[in-house]
Amino acid sequence: MTNLDMPQLIALAGAIGWASGVRLYLVVLLTGLAGYLGWVALPGGLQVLAHPVVLGVAGFMVFIEFFADKIPGLDSLWDMVHTVIRIPAGAALAAAVFGTDHTVMALVAALLGGGFAATAHAAKATTRAAINTSPEPFSNVGASLVEDAAVPTGLWLAVAHPLVFLVVLVLLLVLSVWLIRKSWRFLRGLVSRVTRIFSGRPDPGVEPAFRLKKSSTGDTPNV
After folding, report:
1. Domain count, the chain
2. Which domain does 12 fall in, by range?
3. DSSP string covering 204-223, please?
4. CA distance 75 to 92
5. What CA dihedral angle connects 100, 102, 103 and 108, to 10 degrees?
6. Nearest to 50 by CA among 41, 22, 62
7. Model confidence over 80-130: pLDDT tens digits?
8. pTM score of the predicted model
9. Beta-strand (E) ranges in the chain?
10. Among candidate residues 67, 194, 85, 211, the one with its CA nearest the CA of residue 141
11. Taking phi first (over 0 means left), then psi (-120 to 50 degrees means alpha), and beta for anything else, what does residue 73 get?
């Protein structure tokens, strides 16, 4: 069983906060399983995740989310509903890494964890909404599978190589901000389109946030 030192705890708090904004139930399941199977000595605040009832409920929700997240339209509705769930849960779980033994660190972890969860959730929700403008479902499924793989990879990296993960986390946050900015154009266009439809004005459609443009050498992504 691995006993976590302070760098690992810091990295784990960051990983849990960020990953909760992407796959909250998978975070709960994997963290709980790591403690239940004796792979990692979970901090006191996270030991409740190893309870069989919590594992069962988390596993059921992971099963539901796995399919819901891969259906265009339903994935965006799922993200919308979970806006009020993922962010506070990310803050609470990040704080639980330190618990009452490190009150200041727990407060800092809650603030940062909530911020990381909010950033990851916003990037996920806006990007998936932009992808849903494409008529084919493969981009949606591909993005979802990447998210499925990114969460366990991030949690493992936080424990096995905490300093490496912290560098990766910074890069992920920068990428998330970039994706939010690119996808926000789509959301503004969608709101404008709905307004035009209900006002009876001509509807030119919504310009995708991510599209291909023609060049002399072929199609290249216009991002």
Report:
1. 1
2. 2-222
3. -----SSEEEEETTEEEEE-
4. 24
5. -130
6. 41
7. 999 999 999 999 999 999 987 788 999 999 999 999 999 999 999 989 888
8. 0.83
9. 2-3, 40-41, 211-215, 218-222
10. 67
11. left
